[in-house]
Write a structure and sequence with these properties.
Layout lengths: L18 H24 L6 H8 L3 H7 L8 H17 L5 H13 L4 H17 L3 H26 L5 H23 L12 H12 L1 H4 L1
Helix pairs in contact: 1-2, 1-4, 1-6, 4-5, 4-7, 5-9, 6-8, 7-8, 8-9
Length: 217
């Protein structure tokens, strides 16, 4: 079986992506942002693939080259945080995941620029529509399932060859669910991404601290 785009290399590091892959990812993300804005403003049921393509500045044929259905178009936006999460974990120097993950949560969920804040606000709009649309809900669950699966081989490298596979899976699940629950609970309210109350990073930190207590023992 051929290695996936996110398979680890022989040295445990993620392989560099080609220029064509990076361009493709940028295009997919631009389409995802256009879809997210339209879904949040009008509701997914009122938006067509043609409208998403027009908003993204591409042809309908190009849209279908990247996505099979309009509901799939938001997936790159939902996975962008998971991609950052995996990249940061792969390059981290720390060897204790219980100390590493709290830092990475802040790296992923604390906005550093105006663009980061806007991206989180757009994501909030998408997550609010997820609960109302079965196909979007399925996409969100798939993103989180895939994120957990991608964490496991990296955590195995970090924890060493003697690590219990079940403990590794527990840790991957706890880390993924911390991000998911933090984002979902924050998205249900109106707090700014880096405001004083209910930020996604603070909520995710609280979830991780509570769920990881058993792992620390």
């Amino acid at each position: 079986m051929e290695p996936s785009e996110y398979s680890l290399g022989a040295d445990g590091a993620a392989p560099a992506r080609t220029l064509a892959e990076r361009r493709r990812e940028r295009t997919r993300l631009e389409i995802a942002r256009a879809a997210a804005h339209l879904f949040a403003e009008q509701g997914p049921e009122n938006v067509t693939a043609e409208e998403i393509a027009e908003a993204a500045g591409i042809s309908l044929r190009t849209f279908y080259r990247y996505f099979g259905a309009k509901e799939e178009a938001i997936t790159p936006l939902l996975t962008s945080g998971a991609d950052n999460w995996v990249d940061l974990l792969t390059s981290a120097a720390e060897k204790d995941p219980l100390e590493l993950f709290p830092r990475l949560i802040d790296e992923v969920l604390v906005p550093k620029t105006a663009a980061d804040r806007e991206e989180l606000r757009v994501t909030r709009g998408v997550l609010r529509t997820v609960a109302e649309t079965p196909l979007l809900r399925a996409a969100w669950h798939r993103v989180n399932f895939d994120s957990e699966a991608r964490l496991r081989p990296i955590l195995t490298e970090i924890c060493g060859p003697d690590a219990d596979p079940f403990e590794v899976r527990l840790l991957a699940t706890v880390a993924s669910d911390a991000i998911r629950l933090g984002l979902e609970h924050w998205a249900a309210g109106d707090a700014d991404p880096d405001g004083s109350g209910g930020t996604p990073a603070r909520l995710a930190q609280e979830v991780f601290a509570r769920l990881s207590r058993g792992l620390a023992d």
